[in-house]
Prior knowledge:
flat, about 70% helix, mainly alpha, single chain
Amino acid sequence: MTGPTGTRATATAPKPAAAKAAPGPPHPTVRALTRALPLTPATVLLLLFLAGPIAYCAYIAFTDLQLTGQAEDSFIGFENFRTAFGDEAFLNAVWLTLVFTVVSALLGQNTLGLALAALMRRASKPVRTLVGGIVVTAWVLPEVVAGFLLYAFFRREGTLNAVLDWLRLPTQNWLYTLPILAVSFANVWRGTAFSMLVYSAALNEIPKEITEAAEMDGAGGWRRMWHITLPMIRRSIGTNLMLITLQTLSVFGLIWVMTRGGPGGKSQTLPLFMYEEAFQKSMIGYGTAVALLLLVVGSLFSVIYLRLLRTEV
Length: 313
């Protein structure tokens, strides 16, 4: 296109608008606060209902607080802990707690749960349904109800002695002669279902190709279990051991209903000893110190299991 003078007119293109500057990345502090914001309600609840009571109990453990006969408490330092480690009843409760935990949790629930999970993989569906229903029913029963059922089973006129008498075998008062083993068996009966469910889920995650290859190589059932199954479910074993150990350390109602820690303290574990000192003898400070020691024992077990879980398979 030309103008009047014969020169070509050139169109001037409009200048593009200046591009807006892209916003920079958020400050690390802002990003961290944004990520932590959804966790705030849970954190507040934990501090209010968990950390708060634990801190208050830790304070009480260093006082001589009593339920009755005392105007005000006073700070006495480590006197409650020195009294505990010099008390034969406390040391007996520590020993019985370890026996109860090892026999009923580490050996009983853990081993029996793994055995049931392994056997039920090869069982027919009706057998799996029947066995699973029986084991899970014992687990979902309230602790007090389970304790009464096992009391009726082990008492002198109970079911066990009736069966032994019918078989012409010697009977005895199991709750008097072997109380810690009786309550350990009761805890195994009640808690094995949890271990069975954990191991059933873990065994189902093992690829069938690995097991079939081991069978073709001539590996028997025990060799497959030791060299293939157990290493592959190692993390599940550690998780299960940690959970059932912590649960067993805190068992109270089952033993209380069956034996109340007797006779003569032969089945008095730390939870029952703590309850007796704090609420029956009204020595809240001393009982809280025992509870704090039990918390430390549970924490040590947790640390050990967590370190094992971090180990690579």
